[in-house]
Amino acid sequence: MLRRFIAWMLCAGLGATTVWAAPVQTAAAPSGGQLYTRNCASCHGQRGDGGIGVPLALPSFQAGISDDYLRQTIRHGRPGRVMPAFPSLGADEVEAIVRHVRSWNKGPSVAYSKAPIAGNPVHGKQLFGQYCTACHGANGEGAKGTGVTFSRPRDLPIMAPALHNPGFLDAAPDAMIKATLMNGREGTPMQSYLKLGLKEKDIDDLVSYVRSFETQPLGSSATLVKTETPVIIRESPYDLNTTVERVKTAVTTNNFFYGRVQTLEYGMTPPANENPNQVIVYFCNISLLNQALAIDPRVGMFLPCRVSIFEKNGKVQVMSVNPKVLSQLFNNSELNQLCEQLEQSYTAIIEEATL
Hints:
The chain contains 15 helices and five strands.
């Protein structure tokens, strides 16, 4: 679906008239399982066993969260982290997903008071540096990466979440943070702080410090790359074949290697019906490829790199999806630098080809 959307977007850049209408909803609303499969399973696993995202079916996770925590997390996500917000879901759809996720809970549901916990944030900061930074980061920015490796399963079932994040702080009341610190989370590196020797008052101080993140400047964990346009586009003064050759040359001079050229419609229509005036040049840089997949495997949907070339009414246009779109679609601020770098490379290739 995503690739078809991109193809449509590129074709629309030619000025063609395209009318899109939402399908008429004639069937009943999707079930929680269907909504979960559509929106959540690719990261959290079809059975909640995790992957890029938290293993939602983990018993200790289920035992420590409330339904409202799930609702708020679905609605607001984790800005700048891998978990996106889902503002387009209706309240009934969010509730259906919550019910589906909670179907994995083997124990009673828990609810937390929203009352703030009084503590000493100064002392809490000292304790945070001693007990929490190794997993959650010096400033509560959370563990890096997605927890997915290329050659083997990850060592731990969960990556330490970002505590200095507006989505987490909105979703998790003080009482839930305290309960997690006191009880730990079996099956993860999160231990019971009582068993580590802390007193309940110490835990209150830690909670107070974590809550103080709301008044502290946000770090990179909540930063996304902004882009004015989803498409980089230039008009070429050359004919289509010459433009293709110039793109191939520009690809190599910008430290990528050329892969192949094929029509936009390749594989979607019989070869005799393919439009020869709409082609795609594929290229790659192995180092960047490895960096991108290590940061977020979902980047694979946008690989290999490509530039599209179209000829219509005697005019040739060269265009590509702006890589900065990745940051907003995937909600992963670790992609920021790579997105910026790729955007500069794509722009350089297209501009060199059309000089």
